[in-house]
């Protein structure tokens, strides 16, 4: 009873675990691991380059941390995959046990059929069994019975064979899963060994940081002083840019107002000229409409009188000839009324067309004059509308320092105050513009170049460039190369990227697609 109960519990548990397509889940894990291993391979290449070209740097430490995180994700995924395989092995064993029980029942039933056939002499000697029939009908019935009995035996034998094959198939699948699990365990053992080595490498690196703490913190504080000076200069430059922009805007507003005033005078004169040119046509069309209205009115009145006369004659005892004449006169009057009404409709349509053409000509003339004076030609921008969808300033890179007040990743007693983000990149990487705009200025600050790009009320700032590829007042698009990223104080290749809304810096990670 306990064995049966445990078997049913196993079936229920098996249904709950495997009801969500475990094979598909296992394939997803395998795909994730393949992608993670590609990232690890790419990081190894980056680390080997960084190791040669930089000393202790946060970028290098972050890359080591990231690689270790990826390794642990791979290991966790293989743990999940191992559980799927173990569940599959358990499932196969349940199937094998179930099939063995069913095969035992089938074999027992088949043995009973054979014993029964042996004991039944009539069936054993088929010819005697058929010939001993009392009549032809009974003989045919016995033949059909023997045929069906033989088919039943064959069916039972086939069921036994199929069940045996199913057991073999499940045993093979179980062996394959066991082999897969063994290979996974070997791989896991290697992964664990690698993780331990890389954890030790990370610890060695942290120890190196601690060993050089006084020197590194001194360099870091010097860099922070330079950073504050950079931020002060950036704020001053942006304030001056905004002041010049406002002055330009005020001047442009005055110029726009004057252009508009002159344009309105010119447009008024042009409309008056068009009005004068079309006055005769409009008057002629109006006169024609009025004549058509008068004629249509007379024709309608005549038609009404003739119709009334025809009605009265129809009611009186006048002669048929007078009735016929009245009908004819009524028809002619109705035809004349229709003709005049059609002529009136044509005259009205003609008058409307001339009036519309006149108004359209005046409107078009006004637009042309306004355009010639440059009125209403200011183009807006939509930087703010694209928040969260703006492109990243480099093709590939890792954010090492975030926006705002942040504790240093290693030296917790040092607080960094960043107006933007720092992005570690490979040597030779070029910064690219994140959104269409205009290069407002290029400055050399602390020995490196900084590019300011204006997007309406917003600025994007690209600092720590070793060289630039754009010029002041140049219009740029999203993706335009700004300049090559230079090295930082710790010899890491790092881009300082900022976004300002007017005179206020904002977190770039809330704006770019990263």
Features:
single chain; 514 residues; alpha+beta; two-stranded antiparallel sheet; 13% strand; flat; disordered N terminus
Description:
The protein is an alpha+beta fold and 514 residues long. It has 8 helices and 12 strands. The chain has helices at residues 2-18, 22-53, 58-119, 121-124, 126-131, 136-211, 213-315, 320-372, and strands at residues 398-401, 404-407, 415-418, 421-424, 430-432, 437-445, 448-455, 458-468, 475-476, 481-485, 494-501, 504-506. The strands form 2 sheets. Strands 1, 4, 5, 6, 7, 8, 9, 10, 11 and 12 form a 10-stranded antiparallel β-sheet that branches. The protein has a two-stranded antiparallel ribbon with strand order 2-3. Helix 2 packs antiparallel against helix 3 (58-119) and helix 3 (58-119) packs antiparallel against helix 6 (136-211). It is flat and about 125 Å long.
Topology readout:
Layout: H1 2-18, H2 22-53, H3 58-119, H4 121-124, H5 126-131, H6 136-211, H7 213-315, H8 320-372, E1 398-401, E2 404-407, E3 415-418, E4 421-424, E5 430-432, E6 437-445, E7 448-455, E8 458-468, E9 475-476, E10 481-485, E11 494-501, E12 504-506
Antiparallel strand pairs: 1-4, 2-3, 4-11, 5-10, 6-7, 6-9, 7-8, 8-10, 8-11, 11-12
Largest sheet: 10 strands, antiparallel
- Name the helix and strand elements from N-terminus to C-terminus, one letter apiece: HHHHHHHHEEEEEEEEEEEE
Mean pLDDT: 77
Query: How many individual β-strands?
Result: 12
Query: Which band does the percent of strand residues land in?
Result: 5-15%
Radius of gyration in whole Å, from Cα? 48 Å
Based on helices, strands and strand pairing, what is the structural class? alpha+beta
Based on Cα principal axes, name the global outline: flat
Number of helices: 8
Q: Which consecutive residue ranges, at least 5 long each, have pLDDT under 50?
A: 1-19, 375-380
- Separation of termini? 60 Å
* Helical residue percent band: 55-70%
